Structure formats: C-alpha cells, structure tokens
Amino acid sequence: MSLYGKYRPETFSEVIGQDLITSALSNAIDNSRISHAYLFSGPRGCGKTSCARILARCLNCAEGPTSHPCGKCESCRELGRNGSGSMDVMEIDAASHNSVDDARNLREQVQFSPVRDRYKVFILDEAHMISTQGFNALLKVVEEPPKNTIFIFATTAPEKVIPTIRSRTVHYSFRLVGPDVMKPYLAQICQKEGVEVDGEILDMVVRQGGGSVRDSLSVLEELINGREGDKLDPKRCREILGLIPSDLVSEYLEAILSGQSAKAYELGGKIGTFEPSMLLEAVLEEVRKRLVEGFSKGEDVSKLLFISEAVRDYAPLFKLPLSERLSCDLMTSKLLSPAPRAAEGARPSSGPAPAKAQGRPAFEASPAPAPWRAPQAKTDESDLREKWKRAVASLPEDVRRQVDEERVPRVDFMRSGGSVAVLLTFATPLDQHAFALRFNRTVPEKVKEAVQREFGPGSSIRPSPKTADGKTVTKVRDMSMEELAELSKQMLEEKPLSVEEIAEKVGGQVVED
Length: 513
Fold this sequence. Notes:
Blueprint: H1 3-6, H2 19-30, E1 37-41, H3 48-60, H4 74-78, E2 89-93, H5 100-110, E3 120-125, H6 132-143, E4 149-155, H7 163-166, E5 170-173, H8 179-193, H9 199-209, H10 213-225, H11 234-241, H12 246-258, H13 261-271, H14 276-297, H15 302-314, H16 324-336, H17 355-358, H18 378-393, H19 397-400, E6 410-416, E7 419-425, H20 429-441, H21 443-455, E8 460-463, H22 481-490, H23 499-504, H24 509-512
Parallel strand pairs: 1-4, 1-5, 2-3, 3-4, 7-8
Antiparallel strand pairs: 6-7
C-alpha cells in the first residue's frame, strides 16, 4: 500500500494543516448542527476527500453522531483505511459521472432511505467536472433532500460549481500545508517506517510536495523505495528527484554576476542536462535567496532583479523543440548582458547606482514590450500633432466629421518602441459610440488606416475610457436593452440602427478596448 493510503487520516485529529475546518466540523457535529450539503474546496492532496469520509464516519458511528468515532463498530471499520466501504456512503467520481443521466440516476438513489446507518451520504469527488445540465438536474434534491441524506461536494475549482449549488452548501476552503507543519509530520512517518532522514532531505520533500500532503508522501515514498540501507543519502535523493546540486547553481549564478562568461557557459551546459522546470526553479530559488539577503543588507540588487525577469521571460524557450543546451546558452547570454540602466535623462555616474538613487528600478522586463509612455519632448509632441492633422485631412468628409475637434476635443499620443497609439477623448459618450457604430462600423477602420499611413504600420487608435468632461463611457456590451434602444434612437440622424445591430459588436474593436 502507498504511504498516503497507509497513513490516510481516520479522525479529524489526524488531519494536519486544516485545524480551523476540522474544529468547525467537530463543533457542528457535537452541537447537532449538521447541514444537508457541504462544499469542500482546495488544492489537490490537502484532505478534502479524507475529511468527507471522516465526516460520514462521525455521523454514522454507532455511538454517534460524534466528532470522535469509536473505530470499532461496523460502520467505522467499513469507512476506515482498509475498509470495504459502506452501502450508505457512496463515493462518486464526478469526472466520469458528469452527465444529466448520471445526475438523474443519483436523484433516484437519493429517494431510498439508509439501509443500515443513520445517514445516507453522497461524496461527489471532482465536483467541478459535473456539467451545468447535471448540476441543474441535482438542484432541487440538493436544496431539499430527503430526511437523513447529506451531500458532500469535493473540488479543486469551486468557481466551476454553479452558484445555485454553491449557495445551498456550507463551504469550507482547504489550504496547502505549510513547511512548519509538513516537516515534523514527514519526520514522524519516516520514524514509523524505520528510515533515518535529515533536515536537508525533508526540505527537499517539502519543496517538491508543494504543500500537498499526498504529493509529499508520494515523493517521500519514492526516496524510501530508492534508498540504499536504512538511511537516506541527500546526494542520492537529489539524483532520484532530478534536482540540480545547489552548489552548481550557486557557482553558475556567481559566474553570471561576476561576468565570467566562459565559466557561465560551461556551468550552463551542465545544468542544461536537467529537466527544464527543475532548472528554472533552481535558478530562481537561488536568486530569491540572494535577493532576500541583499535587501536585508541594503545592497544593490538591480542585477538580481534583472536576472529574475530575464529567466521568467526566457522560460518559454524550453518549451520549444530546441536542445536543452541551446536554450540554456541563449538564456545564459541574456543573463550575461548588462542590466538596462535607469530612465533616459538620468545623470551619469561612475559606478552602478542603487535603484533607490535613480528614482525608479534600474531594470525593465525584457524582451517584453515597455508600457505606453507619452513623449516628453515638446518638438516631438508638435510633430505628432501635425501628423494627426494630416491623417484627419486625408479622410473622406463624412468620416472626418466623426473625429473633428468638436467631437474629439482632446488627442494624446503614447509610444512603445517605434509605434504610436493615438488616444482619442470624445466630447460625449454618444460621439464615441457613433464613431464606432455608424456607417456599418467602417469609421474606426478608415481612421486607423490614415493613422498608419502617417505614423507607421504598427500604429493604432484607442478611445479614452472617459469623455472630455470626465464621464465614464459605458461599453455597448455592458448596456441594457433599454439603453441600446435609446442609443439607437439618438443615432437615427445619419443611418438607422436597430438594437440587434448595435448589440452585434461586429467591428468597432477600438471602442471595446
């Protein structure tokens, strides 16, 4: 039997890391405040299904309902670790029983009274996999189940459970277990298994388990099965898990920071033989350690911040059909490159100045595009406005009327690299909607073409979310049918538009930004 099956909790006191939930359930049982439906949500392996079984065990214990089941009666034994399961406690895999027909079958089974025990309990695991139609078929019976019937939904995605079902349940949100709880628990498991283990190995297991008790026990079982002798060796454990030696990563990062390119490429070739996700995680973990140390000592950490951004940006390389060595060399080249300096116009200095002294971080994410910025130079602003005037002048008269100074009293410009975005601030919401919807929605396209002729092929037009007098423009897709009808009436001047035509939103992408 696997470790997570062998040590699966049988009582609330054996569940780790969910004290608030187990105490709340225990109090509810002892005070006879039992609900007809529960929703247990949270990441995988954190105890949702185990707590559902324990809850059923507590309710159907011969000495219960009690928060401390006896473990001796027939019901307790059947719902224990090695039990065969109870006829009155049905565990249903919703991932494979998610259709309307499955929901109808369940609805029919609910009508029968418990065969032997006090309650008939239905545990639906992976409940988010149930279709909307399936949930709707269960809605009435979940809202008003027969006497002594309880539903327990367990899911990793509670947002996918339809609101009408969620509103009829008592919702408990499970969390991942922290290292301070997980590490002692794993040490106890090793002691029971007769295996010697040190803190370094437990740290590996906790990190690989990611807070999931089941995942952590699976990792520990892998190490125990692959051990030589009664003691786990850290080096062998790293090899089994495919982890990169910490000293190798530290030397690689040190070579990057000191600019030793030859050594960095050599060490990069070694770490490039490991699984990509392990490689990236190991580098970022080492960067994190140095960042924490650097910030605590008040040191300049701009290069470390640049490295963390660059590693994140280059992560997709490792998903391409390239060799790991090539991907790693490309990433190493980026990390060896100088971190971008502070904003243009900053006074030069003889040495690397701390980010705080520059007034902004001394790095930017790369190669991701920089955010839009309005140009600073007045002469550049004047040139942009001249281009805008030429673009407007080149438009047909009926289109030009939609962007004249009366309808668009303010125009701003934003830059990203060599591209320019023209930000249009309309006088009224009606002017903005008319710009997007009149003339079969061709106006925005014609204005965009004129802008690209003057500003370049990568340029674009964007509407301001507010009008010149500060009013917020409601998007067409957010309007009610009454508001759409009123808008249609107001736009009858040049071309009638029906409510359905306006609501289609085919084109007019500029207004929807």
